[in-house]
Amino acid sequence: GPKIGIVEINMQITDSRKIIKDLNYFAEKSSISAIVIRLETPGGGVAASQEIYEKVRKISIFSDKPIIASMGGVAASGGYLIACAGDEIYANSSSIIGSIGVIYSSFGLQELIKKEKELKKKLNKS
Question: How many CA atoms lie within 13 A of 5 on its CB side?
């Protein structure tokens, strides 16, 4: 009979490749009648979360298979964003959900550049 494909996102979202591969597999498999995305994540990186969101949205629009977001204890940031792309969202009353923003990491190189300039000055004086 009909089967349900389950995609688990149970860590910080840093890479979208495996999740998108799983989503594509279930979307193309004729024996799968629905896809459940189980979210237990604090969120993660901007690009990875956005890529997964776009894939879920595309399947939701172009496939007749419903995509259900099932939120665990925590589904924040990128996890919440991904859930919003599906057809339905289910959560417990005690689930921690929120913050549609995602983590954006950057590196400050000002100190390194400052030290490099100081070193160049010292070397030029020698």
Answer: 21
DSSP 45-102: BHHHHHHHHHHHHHHHHH-SS-EEEEEEEEEETHHHHHHHTSSEEEE-TT-EEE----
**Number of H-type helices and E-type strands within the chain:** 4, 5
The tokens 């901007």 sit on which residue? 46
Per the rule left: phi > 0, alpha: psi between -120 and 50, beta: everything else, 20 is: alpha
> 103, 43 in Cβ contact below 8 A?
yes
* CB-CB contact of 76 with 98 (8 Å): yes
Task: Please list the pLDDT of the chain residue by residue as tens digits (126 residues).
Answer: 789 999 999 999 999 999 999 999 999 999 999 999 999 999 888 899 999 999 999 999 999 999 999 999 999 989 999 999 999 999 999 998 887 555 555 567 777 788 888 888 888 876
Could you give the residue numbers annotated as active site?
77
Amino acid letter, 103:
I
Which pTM value belongs to this model? 0.77
